[in-house]
Design a protein that fits this description.
The protein is mainly alpha-helical and 782 residues long. It contains 39 helices and seven strands. Among the domains are: 31-216, 3-Layer(aba) Sandwich (Rossmann fold), CATH 3.40.50.300; 220-274, no CATH class; 286-398, Orthogonal Bundle (Arc Repressor Mutant, subunit A); 402-477, no CATH class; 717-777, Arc Repressor Mutant, subunit A (Orthogonal Bundle), CATH 1.10.10. A five-stranded parallel β-sheet has the order 2-3-4-1-5, with helices on both faces. Strands 6-7 form a two-stranded antiparallel ribbon. The longest helix has 18 residues, at 578-595. The chain starts with 46 loop residues before the first helix and ends in a 5-residue tail after the last helix.
Length: 782
C-alpha cells in the first residue's frame, strides 16, 4: 500500500469521535507496556552500538531501524538502555505481546506510546472510539501521520517484540505508516525475525538501517565486562576467551554460563566443558525457542542438527522429506539461530550452542535415530564429492568399515592437499583394530609419522604394513605395497640424513611406479631427484625433477612439485642461472599460497634457495630471514639435511654482517646436526667451505692489508684480478677478454679461488673481494 491508496491530507483527514472502547472492560491500555524493562543491575554498556543508534536516529533519510536477532542477543537491553538516555519528549516505547494481534488493541497501545512523546499525536487512546470492524487503521493511521507532520521535534518510536505480531492487516498498516512518516520521525522495530514489511523497498531507497546478530555479538572486552564486572566471577583472560568463542558472543548464553560458574570450585574444567547440554542453556533454548515452533519445524531442527553445515539437498536427504529450501528460508527469516555461510544463501549452520541443544533433544525425542541420519548424510556427501564430510559422518554413524574404505582408498592425496591433521583425526576416531588391521591404513600411519616428524615411527609402521592384509584396493594410490614402502623409506631416510639409502629406495620406487599413476610416479621421482641433488648429481637430478615440476602441466602432486621446485631453484642458482632460480621460486610460492603448504617440510628447500639468492645479491637481512624460516620448518619436520644447510647459511650471513659470535654458534649447531647424518652428501663440502669463509670474514685484515702475492687467504694475484672484474659485473667471457686468457682458464681460477675463501657462488666471491678492498682502504664496511 502506498500514500496514493489513501488521501492523506493534513486538513481534511477526519478527527475521530470519542466514545467508549469495545471489548476491553474499561482497561484498554496496559501502562507497563509503554516502558522498556528495567535495566539489569551491572549490565554492560555497549557504547559502540549506542552511538550507532544515535547516528541512525539522527539521519533524516532513515524511516525504519530494524534490530533483528534470535532470542537472548540483548536487543531489548540495548534499546532499553538507549531509550532511557532519551528525553521523555523524544522517544516512545511499546512492548508488543500476542494479544496485540487484535488491531484495536495494537493501535490503541501504539497511539498511547506516541502520546507520551507528544499529546497532539492521535486521539486519546483511553477513549478510542467504536469504529466499524476492520476500519480502525484505515482512519487512525492517516491521522497519526498528519499529527506527526505538525510536530517539529524529532521523535523515535520503539516497538519491541514485533515478531509476536502475525496479523497481516497490522503489518500492512505499519508498513504504510513507515513509508509515509515525515522526516522528523523514525520507527525502531525490535524483532527475532524479519517482519512482513516492504523491507527491500526501504533498503533500496536508503530509508532503512539494520542491526543484526553479527553486530550484537559481545566482543571479548564486553564478555569480560559481563562475566567479571556484572557477575563478579574473576575469570582469567583465557577462560573469558573460551566462553566468548563457545557462545559466539550470544549475550544470554554468556549470562547463563556465568550463572552456572558461580560457586564452582573447578572453574577450569567447567569452563572448558561448557556446551549446549548445560542445564540453564537447555532450559532457556527449549522454553524460548524450540517449544514455540510447530511440530514440523521442531522435527526438521532436531534431525538436521547432526550436520555441521547444511544445504537444501542435504537436508532433504537426511530428513527423508522434501521442501527443505523453503524451511531453511523460513528459519533464516525467523532467526532461529541459523547462520548463512555464503552470499547466495545456499549453505547454513546452526549456532554451536543451539546445535548442541538440538542434538540432545534429538536423542531424547527419537533415541537411536542419529546413526541413520549420519549414514544418510555420508551417502549424500559421497555422491556430491565431499569425501572429508562423508568420512566424518560415517564415523559418527559407527559405520567404521565404510569409513575405513573411504579413508584408505585415496590414500596419500589428502596429505598433498594440506590435510594431514584431518587424516590423523580420522584414524584416531577409528577403533584400534579397524585402524591397524588394513595394510593401507598402516601405511597411512607411516606417512603421517613422516609428515609430522615422528621418524622413529615410520619404519615400524612400514614393516607391519608389508606383513598385513590389504582389505581393499588403492584408488589413485601406489602401484603396490612395496612401492608405497619404498617411497616412505626414501622420504624418512632423506630426513634422517642417510642419502645413500634414500637414493636406493627412491630409485626402486621410480621403477615400481613406471607404469603407475601420474601422482605416485611424481612422488617417487621427487624423492629420487632430491636425493640426487643433495648428493651433487645435479645433471640427473635436473632431468628427474623437471618432469615433476613441468610448468606446462598441472602438478600431479602438490608436495612433490613443491619439493622439486625447491631443488631445481637451488641447482639453477649454483649453476649461475639466476633467472631460472627466480622462476622456480615464484612457482613454489604460488603453489604454497594456493594450497596452504607453507608449514610442510617440502617448503624448506625453496626457502633455503631463496636465502642463498638473497645472500648472492647482498640482501643479507632478507637472507637471514628466509634461512630462519627454513630452519624453523626443517626442525619441526625433523629434516636434518635442511636444518644443517639453514644453519650453514646463517653462519655465513651472520659472519658477513659482522656478528662473529652468532656465526660461530650457527656453525657449531650445523656440525651437531651433521654428526647425526649417515650420508650428508654435498653438506660435507659446504661445511668445510663455510668454516673457511666464517674464519676469513671474521678476521679479515684491517688497513695494513698484505701486498699482493702474500695474502693470508691464499689468493694469487691473478685470482684477485678475476674476482675484481667479477665484482664489477663482468661475465666469464668478458673477464677472459680483459685478461687475454681463455674462458676455461677463468673458470679454473674461479673454482680454485672459491675453494680458498669458502665461497659457493659468484655473489659471495664478489662480496668477499669488495669487503676486503674496503678494509684495505680504511673505508667503512656496510
Amino acid at each position: 500500500m502506498s500514500s496514493h491508496d489513501l488521501n492523506v491530507e493534513p486538513v481534511s483527514a477526519p478527527r475521530l469521535p470519542i466514545s467508549a472502547p469495545r471489548d476491553y472492560d474499561g482497561a484498554l491500555i496496559v501502562r507497563s507496556k509503554l516502558h522498556p524493562p528495567p535495566p539489569r543491575r551491572g549490565a554492560v554498556v555497549r557504547r559502540e552500538l549506542l552511538g550507532r543508534l544515535d547516528e541512525d536516529t539522527g539521519d533524516a533519510t532513515v524511516k525504519l531501524i530494524l534490530v533483528v536477532a534470535p532470542a537472548g542477543w540483548g536487543k531489548t537491553s540495548l534499546l532499553g538502555e538507549w531509550w532511557s538516555s532519551r528525553d521523555a519528549a523524544s522517544a516512545a516505547w511499546l512492548s508488543a505481546d500476542r494479544g496485540d494481534n487484535d488491531p484495536a488493541r495494537f493501535w490503541a497501545h501504539l497511539v498511547a506510546a506516541m502520546r507520551r512523546a507528544s499529546e497532539s499525536i492521535g486521539p486519546d487512546a483511553e477513549r478510542l472510539p467504536t469504529i466499524p470492524e476492520g476500519k480502525i487503521a484505515e482512519i487512525l493511521v492517516p491521522q497519526v501521520i498528519n499529527d506527526f507532520s505538525r510536530v517539529p521535534d524529532r521523535i523515535t518510536v520503539v516497538i519491541d517484540n514485533y515478531h509476536l505480531i502475525s496479523n497481516p492487516d497490522i503489518h500492512e498498516w505499519v508498513g504504510f505508516l513507515i513509508e509515509n512518516l515525515p522526516p522528523t520521525v523514525r520507527i525502531v522495530l525490535v524483532t527475532r525475525s524479519d517482519p512482513a514489511l516492504p523491507l527491500a523497498r526501504l533498503r533500496a531507497r536508503g530509508e532503512m538501517k539494520e542491526i543484526r546478530a553479527d553486530e550484537l555479538r559481545f566482543s571479548e572486552e564486553e564478555t569480560e565486562g559481563l562475566l567479571n564486572g556484572a557477575l563478579n566471577l574473576g575469570l582469567p583472560s583465557d577462560h573469558v576467551r573460551v566462553l566468548a568463542e563457545r557462545t559466539e558472543g550470544w549475550a544470554a548464553g554468556l549470562y547463563l554460563a556465568g550463572l552456572s560458574l558461580r560457586g564452582n570450585d573447578d572453574l577450569d574444567r567447567q569452563v572448558h566443558a561448557f556446551a549446549g547440554d548445560n542445564r540453564q542453556i537447555v532450559d532457556y533454548l527449549v522454553a524460548e525457542v524450540l517449544d514455540a515452533q510447530p511440530a514440523h519445524i521442531r522435527g526438521f531442527l532436531t534431525r538436521t542438527a547432526v550436520l555441521d553445515r547444511m544445504c537444501a539437498g542435504l537436508c532433504d536427504a537426511v530428513t527423508g522429506e522434501g521442501g527443505s529450501q523453503r524451511t531453511l528460508e523460513e528459519l533464516e527469516r525467523s532467526n532461529l539461530f541459523i547462520v548463512p555461510l555464503d552470499a547466495s544463501r545456499s549453505w547454513y549452520r546452526y549456532h554451536s550452542l543451539f546445535a548442541d541443544m538440538l542434538r540432545r533433544e534429538l536423542e531424547r525425542s527419537e533415541p537411536g535415530l542419529a546413526p541413520l541420519l549420519h549414514q544418510r548424510a555420508s551417502q549424500w556427501h559421497r555422491q556430491h564429492g565431499s569425501a572429508a564430510e562423508a568420512v566424518c559422518h560415517s564415523i559418527m554413524a559407527s559405520d567404521l568399515s565404510c569409513a575405513r574404505e573411504m579413508i584408505a582408498a585415496p590414500w596419500q592425496g589428502r596429505f598433498a592437499d594440506g590435510l594431514a591433521e584431518m587424516v590423523e583425526s580420522w584414524l584416531t576416531s577409528l577403533s584400534p583394530d579397524t585402524a591397524t588391521e588394513d595394510s593401507r591404513l598402516r601405511l597411512m600411519k607411516a606417512w603421517l609419522a613422516s609428515h609430522l616428524g615422528n621418524l622413529d615411527e615410520v619404519e615400524p609402521w612400514v614393516g607391519v604394513a608389508e606383513a598385513a592384509t590389504v582389505h581393499g584396493r588403492f584408488v589413485e594410490g601406489p602401484s603396490s605395497i612395496e612401492s608405497a614402502a619404498c617411497i616412505l623409506r626414501a622420504g624418512s631416510s632423506h630426513m634422517l640424513g642417510d642419502l645413500a639409502d634414500a637414493k636406493s629406495a627412491g630409485r626402486r620406487a621410480v621403477e615400481l611406479e613406471a607404469t603407475g599413476s601420474r601422482r605416485w610416479k611424481a612422488v617417487a621421482q621427487a624423492s629420487l631427484g632430491a636425493s640426487l641433488h643433495w648428493l651433487g648429481e645435479n645433471e640427473e637430478a635436473t632431468e628427474v625433477l623437471s618432469e615433476v615440476a613441468d610448468p606446462l602441466a598441472q602438478p600431479a602432486d602438490n608436495l612433490a612439485a613443491l619439493w622439486a621446485l625447491g631443488c631445481l631453484s637451488a641447482i639453477a642458482l649454483r649453476n649461475g642461472d639466476v633467472d631460472s632460480c627466480e622462476r622456480h621460486l615464484d612457482d613454489a610460492a604460488s603453489l604454497v599460497a594456493r594450497h596452504g603448504l607453507g608449514e610442510y617440510r617440502e617448503s624448506a628447500t625453496a626457502l633455503l634457495a631463496l636465502a642463498e639468492l638473497h645472500e648472492c645479491r647482498g640482501e643479507l637481512s632478507e637472507a637471514e630471514e628466509a634461512a630462519l624460516r627454513g630452519l624453523h620448518i626443517a626442525r619441526r619436520g625433523q629434516a636434518r639435511l635442511e636444518a644443517a644447510l639453514a644453519l650453514l647459511y646463517l653462519a655465513n650471513v651472520r659472519a658477513r654482517l659482522g656478528r662473529a659470535d652468532e656465526a660461530v654458534a650457527s656453525l657449531s649447531s650445523a656440525k651437531d646436526v651433521m654428526r647425526r647424518c649417515a650420508e650428508p652428501g654435498i653438506l660435507a663440502d659446504l661445511m668445510a667451505s663455510t668454516e673457511r669463509a666464517v674464519g676469513e670474514l671474521s678476521r679479515l685484515p684491517g688497513p695494513r692489508q698484505e701486498r699482493r702475492g702474500q695474502r693470508s687467504d691464499g689468493l694469487t694475484d691473478r685470482e684477485v684480478e678475476v674476482f675484481e672484474l667479477l665484482a664489477a659485473g663482468q661475465t666469464n667471457n668478458e673477464i677472459a677478454a680483459a685478461l687475454v686468457v681463455s674462458v676455461h682458464t677463468v673458470e679454473r681460477h674461479l673454482q680454485n679461488a672459491y675453494r680458498k675463501i669458502g665461497a659457493r657462488n659468484r655473489g659471495q666471491a664478489a662480496a668477499y673481494i669488495t669487503r676486503a678492498a674496503r678494509l684495505a682502504s680504511g673505508s667503512p664496511v656496510m
